[in-house]
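[job 0417] fold request received: Bifunctional protein FolD
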Amino acid sequence: MTTDQLILNGQTVADFMKEEMVAKVAMIKEKGILPCLATILVGNDPSSETYVRMKGNACARLGVHSIKVVLPAETTTEELIQEINKLNADHSVHGILLQHPVPHHINERAAFDAISIEKDVDGVTTQGYALNAFGAAAFPSCTPQAIIRILDFYRIQIEGKHAVVIGRSPILGKPVSAMLLNRNATVTTCHSKTVNLDEIVRLGDIVIAAVGKPLFVKGSWIKPGAVVIDAGYNKGNVGDVDYVSCLEQSSAITPVPGGVGPVTIATLIEHTIQSAYMLSERA
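[job 0417] inference complete; emitting structure tokens
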């Protein structure tokens, strides 16, 4: 697909992905296997509850079974890992998602790393991160994978371009930087300690905002004609990019909502289906 569209519509990309997923689910079910995603929610954070519900609804639309494990906020790291290990051992579960963030007293990294690599469909384990850096992950981190998927769908060139990533989290900023580097982009990864951030962003042919601050990236930071990918979602239904001002400068931009989000959810389900498919091939 070629486009001179300014708006990179994530829902369009997700809908395209769903056609292939529905066909693959039907094929797997013929072998007596029902793809299943287990989501774990610790505590009662309203945003997290919404995300888990959205993922469950998306699974239902595609014929994928979903299990929701809800644990109290006072759950310990050890108790959480016990629940994860139960799901690791359950052969009917093909993907495990631990909803981020967890309560502060929990060792989130230990919990993520308890997830079996074969079921790490959200790409959050240390092993998955390492495989992703080498371009060998079966299930790369979902939001980074969604960003690459959007760029590819709209045939936006990555190779040879200067990509500026704002954010360095281990499940978004760092893995997407590695994925862009593996696609022969020149990558600058910025963070909270970066000096003269606006000047660095202004050098980017592709700018990816993953900083977790509403309306943080301003239009004056954007080089004319740059591609802007907003991977943020904040209270008030806004992203990390000041959409109106960045729209004027960019050649292409993702909206919030309706940009990266739908593709992230579609990618999560796609990975779950692929995990089930890999099992069906061994059956």
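[job 0417] notes: The first helix runs from residue 10 to 30. The chain has two domains: 31-116, 142-261.
[job 0417] exit 0
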